[in-house]
Amino acid sequence: MSGPDPGDERSDDSGESRRHDPSEAPSDGTDDPERDPGSANDGRPRTGVGTDHGGEESVVQRSGSGSESDDVSIEDDGIVRWFFGTNDETVVLVRDILSSVAIVAVIGLLLFGISGVWPPLVAVESGSMEPNMEVGDLIFVVADDRFVGDGATGDTGVVTHDDGEDHEKFGKAGDVVVFEPNGQAHQTPVIHRAHFWVEEGENWVDTRAEPEYVNGASCDQLQTCPATHDGFVTKGDANPYYDQYQRGGANTDVVQPGWITGKASFRVPWLGYVRLTFDSILGGMLAPQPGLEAVAGTVGAETPLSSAGAVGTSVGAAGVAAAGTGAAMAAGRRRRQ
Q1: Coil/strand/helix, residue 297
Q2: Cβ contacts of residue 92 below 8 Å, gap of 6+?
Q3: Which of 201, 203, 229, 288 is deepest in the core (most CB within 10 A)?
């Protein structure tokens, strides 16, 4: 006859023994009263600490599942999938830069498709077109054969101030054009309003000009009159004289259609300062020829046309720095040969 099972009796806190009912669930919610203390479920997850066979505590190393991108490798997945899937900090930085460049390129191509010129954006540097164009404005430029208004001169696509009563651009009648002074691509481009068209040999000072815009001069007092070729007489809105007058403006001959590289379409205030700031910091490396200046001053009365100097210094030409779109806005300047 065997004695009672030692496991069948237990003592409570009062010291009295009582018989254990195997069907009675332990108070800690476990099924095994002899369980290892480290495995008790006290309502908190136990993921790090357990007990080894020697009874000593050991830390259970539990690695996370990790993302799939952590497991990519050039050997298993190829360089393309690795490049787009890895979380390597250097590669992530390169991806971000390339993504920004791609976005800029797409925007630039869209603007080029609309405007037909490159760069399609130019930044105004100075003030001969004020108040209709301010320093720091970003100007969207289109090809002269696009968005042609009524009354355009011949097949040039340009509507002049005299013929543009129903074609207002930048606060006044007529198109504002971007051109190369005297057709010289190395000179700073100019952005001024086309006032009227003249024919080769025409005495435009006596027949077409406003006397105050030539300071009361006669044709024989100007080197640009009579006209040596067909073209436009131009003027900055804030300048006192025509560009073809020898003592002010861009100091250029009558502007041939082939010298025109585009027409101003609309402006975005202040945004051009981004391009101008980059150019000033980098010393003109972004655009060796610094765009179209707009200066409202004039040269002295003794200064002849031939020695007026480069456009954008003190001669009152309106100019813009060539500006592309994007982070550095470093696109080159489009020229028409």
Answers
A1: coil
A2: 86
A3: 203
86 and 170 belong to one structural domain: no
Do 8 and 19 contact (CB within 8 A), yes or no? yes
Residue 31 lies in a domain: no
Measured between alpha carbons, how far is 19 from 151 in angstroms, rounded to an integer? 114
Three-class SS of residue 239? coil
Contact, 236 vs 243, CB < 8 A? yes
Do 149 and 272 belong together in one domain?
yes
Structure tokens at 32: 């095994």
Residue type present at position 223: Q
Closest CA to 296 of 161, 171, 136, 134: 134
pTM value is 0.62
Place of tokens 């150019």: 279
Q: What are phi and psi of 176, to 5 degrees?
A: -100, 120
Q: Are residues 141 and 217 in the same domain?
A: yes
| Choice among 35-44, 197-206, 226-235, 291-300 with the minimum mean pLDDT | 291-300
Average pLDDT over residues 13-24: 51
One domain, residues 252 and 144:
yes
Domain that holds residue 165: 117-323
Crossing angle (nearest 10°) for helices 89-115 and 74-85? 50
Distance between CA 264 and CA 186 in Å, rounded?
21
Q: How many CB atoms lie within 10 A of CB 223?
A: 13
- Which residue carries 């309003």 as its tokens? 193
Torsion over CA of 215, 221, 226 and 227, rounded to 10 degrees? -60
Cis peptide before 189 (omega within 30 of 0): no
Q: Total domain count for the chain?
A: 2
* Residue 108 and residue 152 in one domain: no
Q: Is the pLDDT of residue 63 over 60?
A: no
